[in-house]
């Protein structure tokens, strides 16, 4: 397919971006509107891993519902079908 | 006949430019730029065959009208409804 997606360099297309942000603080928003932040508030949390389904493993995660922090988790796995976006902080 | 431009080729032409992404609603039945579904305005960095997109300098407009600035995101293509090249989002559209 000549859409140019394969000709884009590292860190440009989705897979390159994902490999770029492994180990960094991230914000993940789900389709439900719930937000998970790993290491956002100066913590040491991070995105541990992600795969082609956008399944995500987060370390030291905070859960925000309607912008209000509700819970925190040591480790969290998010199934990829629920993910709206992954943001590099 | 003039040479045809495939849909994904059109998106490829938008790489490096501002783009407006309209998401579909929970029910997934319809979408329109003026409907209160989530929207993203940002610079298109790249995309793949599923139209998952990497966007930079993003403003997220959620269904309740709040704005959120995001530096760089990977947006899941699954819930994308419409792409508007050159769009700056609801603010520019209503101005």
Per-chain topology:
The complex is a heterodimer of chains A (89) and B (95).
Chain A: H1 14-21, E1 26-30, E2 35-38, E3 46-50, E4 56-65, E5 68-78, E6 83-88
Chain B: H1 7-13, E1 18-23, E2 39-47, E3 53-61, E4 67-75, E5 80-85, H2 90-94
Antiparallel strand pairs in B: 1-2, 1-5, 2-3, 3-4
Number of strands of chain A: 6
The largest sheet of chain B, given as strand count, sense and whether it forms a barrel, is: 5 strands, antiparallel
Q: Count the helices of chain B. How many?
A: 2
The H/E string of chain A reads HEEEEEE
Distance, first to last CA of chain B:
38 Å
The percent of residues in helical segments of chain B reads: 10-25%
Indicate the radius of gyration of chain A in whole angstroms: 14 Å
Straight-line N-to-C gap of chain A: 32 Å
Global morphology of chain A: globular
Cα radius of gyration of chain B in angstroms: 13 Å
The helix content of chain A is under 10%
Task: Return residue spans of chain A where pLDDT drops below 50 for at least 5 consecutive residues.
Answer: 1-8
Low-confidence stretches of chain B: none
Strand order of the largest sheet of chain B: 4-3-2-1-5
**Number of DSSP E strands of chain B:** 5
Structural class of chain A: mainly beta
What does the oligomeric state look like here?
A: heterodimer
Q: Number of DSSP helices of chain A?
A: 1
Largest sheet of chain A: 6 strands, antiparallel
Order of helices and strands of chain B: HEEEEEH
GO cellular component, one term (chain B): U4/U6 x U5 tri-snRNP complex
Family (chain B): Belongs to the snRNP Sm proteins family.
InterPro entries (chain B): LSm5, LSM_dom_sf, Sm, Sm_dom_euk/arc
Keywords (chain B): Acetylation, mRNA processing, mRNA splicing, Nucleus, Ribonucleoprotein, RNA-binding, Spliceosome
């Amino acid at each position: 397919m000549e859409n140019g997606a394969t000709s884009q360099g590292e860190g440009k297309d989705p897979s390159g971006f994902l490999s770029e942000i492994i180990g960094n603080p991230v914000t993940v928003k789900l389709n439900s509107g719930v937000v998970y932040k790993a290491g956002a508030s100066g913590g040491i949390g991070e995105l541990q891993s992600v795969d082609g389904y956008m399944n995500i493993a987060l370390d030291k995660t905070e859960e925000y519902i309607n912008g209000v922090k509700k819970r925190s988790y040591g480790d969290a796995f998010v199934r990829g079908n629920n993910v709206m976006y992954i943001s590099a902080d | 006949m003039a040479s045809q431009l495939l849909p994904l080729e059109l998106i490829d032409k938008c790489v490096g430019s501002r783009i407006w992404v309209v998401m579909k609603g929970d029910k997934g039945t319809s979408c329109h730029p003026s409907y209160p579904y989530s929207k993203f305005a940002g610079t298109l960095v790249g995309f793949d065959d599923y139209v998952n997109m990497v966007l930079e300098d993003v403003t997220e407009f959620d269904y309740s009208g709040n704005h959120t600035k995001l530096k760089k995101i990977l947006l899941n293509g699954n819930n994308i409804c419409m792409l508007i090249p050159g769009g700056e989002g609801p603010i520019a559209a209503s101005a």
